Amino acid sequence: MTRPTHALISRSALRHNYKVVQQVAPQSNNLAVVKANAYGHGAVVVAQILDPLVPAFGVACIEEAVELRNAGIQKPILLLEGIFSKDEVEIAAENNFWIMLDNLQQVSWLLQANVSSPIKTWLKVDTGMHRLGVQPEQVNDIFLTLTASSNVATDIVLATHFSSADEHQSRATELQLALFNQIKDKLAICLPDSAQISCSVANSAGLLDWPKARLDWNRAGFMLYGNSPLDSENSAADRLKPVMTLKSAIISIRDIAAGQSVGYSQAWTATRPSKIATVAIGYGDGYPRNAKSGTPTLVNGQKAPIAGRVSMDMLTIDITDIKDVNLGDEVILWGTGLPVNQIAECAGTIGYEALTRIPKRTPSIIVD
Ligand SMILES: Cc1ncc(COP(=O)(O)O)c(C=O)c1O
Description:
12 helices, Lyase, Ornithine Decarboxylase, Chain A, domain 1, 8-stranded mixed β-sheet
């Protein structure tokens, strides 16, 4: 018998979510962001499923891109954080990795490198996130220098990243979009009349909630995995289907009297005679340790709240109000019917973090 703790990864949900992306932005090229092990879903598996559908992938760094190439992924791969040394320029050229240039150092590494073929290049400008990107006033000079370099492929993409697109109608996003458009217009003036500037600003939240952000290239991450990044209702987000279902099973059941406590630090105490089930999953499997008592799980389709602290390999749930529970019954920790965002909120975090923390220890099973 094997430990019943798994992350089920739904091929059909992933394909469906990518279709939602395409329906939302049918005129755009929509690349799939698969950094951080595809937000915990398994980068190779996710990229294999999406490879026939997408024009390109996005990862954080060259190591993640090399992993995908070694697994036979064919499509171009954009390095969203750019390069970390000059050597990476040559590796990028050999492997059809695209480079997002985030600062002047990366620009000079690209210009000085000795490459086998020109590299598709994205230039990120800081429009208000203040994390990465060149300054708005540097854009024209850098863009013209890149255009003149034989290391750089034609059709450079001008990009930026939003800080607050998940907040409906946020002023910060309006300002970022307005500044981006100004930067683009100023750049257009100094390019030949025929030159088109390709643009990319939207992440999942931009795609879903900011129609004006759907430009030549979008960079969808979180929504691909079936969850909404938004703080508001959205009809396209409602159509997304969770790709990961995190599940385990009950390995112990006991009755406790009112007044008895459960687990480390005796953090939960029964207020009535209670039935407690122990589930074979804990923070060592990626379930958030900070999930408080009361966080829901699903047992045979019925909600059962966590009772007590999450341990490394186990957690305990209150099944007093649930009928017909037996040893070995399946417990769903998140997925269909139990959004990861809801669990993350109970743990004081966000769905992105909860998914990304799924470790290698938790085996995945690809379904449908
Ligand atoms: C530059 C960039 N683009 C796109 C994304 C994808 O964002 P999301 O997962 O919100 O779609 C990220 C993720 O952090 C990013 O850093």
